[in-house]
Amino acid sequence: MITLTHVGKQYDRIHTALADVSFGIEAGEFVFLTGPSGAGKSTLLKLLFREQVPSSGEIQMAGHRLASMPEKEIPLLRRKLGVVFQDFKLIRSRTIFENVAFVLKVLGVSAAEQKQRTFRALKMVGLQHKLSSYPLQLSGGEQQRVAIARALVNDPLVLLADEPTGNLDPDLAQEIMALFERINGQGTTVIVATHDRSLIQRMKKRVIGLDHGRIAFDQPAPTSLVTV
Ligand SMILES: Nc1ncnc2c1ncn2[C@@H]1O[C@H](COP(=O)(O)OP(=O)(O)OP(=O)(O)O)[C@@H](O)[C@H]1O
């Protein structure tokens, strides 16, 4: 589903964000990206949804070659992805319903289907009763859940999330992770960037560690021991 081959990202002459990063992610995997602040986690996610272009190497994502992909192909790529940003990126002047439905509107989905799918996505994150509220009337945790609903409304092949639990209390963080596991169980590939070691330990998934823009480790999901 996703292959990175000797990927490097240099923002300018001084800042090397990623260097010689190679790994693959199979369809249906659940992977954590971790590492200290500045390790390159956000940059890696930005490369995966083509907000940034690698300075070297190649990335294959859901049938697209991202390094050499023409700009006009970006919408086709993004249709297959759901992205949860660190800072939510909700539109303040639009209701929660409009924020989530917007993705479908852009894709030309009928009004009736927009309504049905938006309601379903908001129900998944427990916010169906906030349809008519505006983002600033919601708590940080609730805004985060709206951002997740927006990422899921299009049934993406791949869900990319940058610190999706950063603003949430531990119980809510656990709930969001349970939600991601459910989505993953339905076949969506999930990639989550996080600092949160205790969350990673609890989840028992594959973990890719970055340090100074390089892969420090790639630890497979622990397999459960079967005793006979
Ligand atoms: N737009 C940019 N221009 C120049 N340098 C940048 C830019 N974005 C990131 N960097 C640099 O690239 C490196 C990696 O940053 P990145 O945001 O990917 O790290 P991160 O692991 O996500 O950090 P954090 O956990 O703090 O969000 C850092 O040294 C950062 O200063």
From TrEMBL:
It comes from the Bacteria. Gene3D superfamilies: P-loop containing nucleotide triphosphate hydrolases. Residues 2-228 form the ABC transporter domain. This is Cell division ATP-binding protein FtsE. Part of the ABC transporter FtsEX involved in cellular division. Important for assembly or stability of the septal ring. The keyword rRNA processing does not apply. SUPFAM superfamilies: P-loop containing nucleoside triphosphate hydrolases (SSF52540). One of its GO terms (molecular function) is ATP binding. Its main location: membrane. Pfam families: ABC_tran.
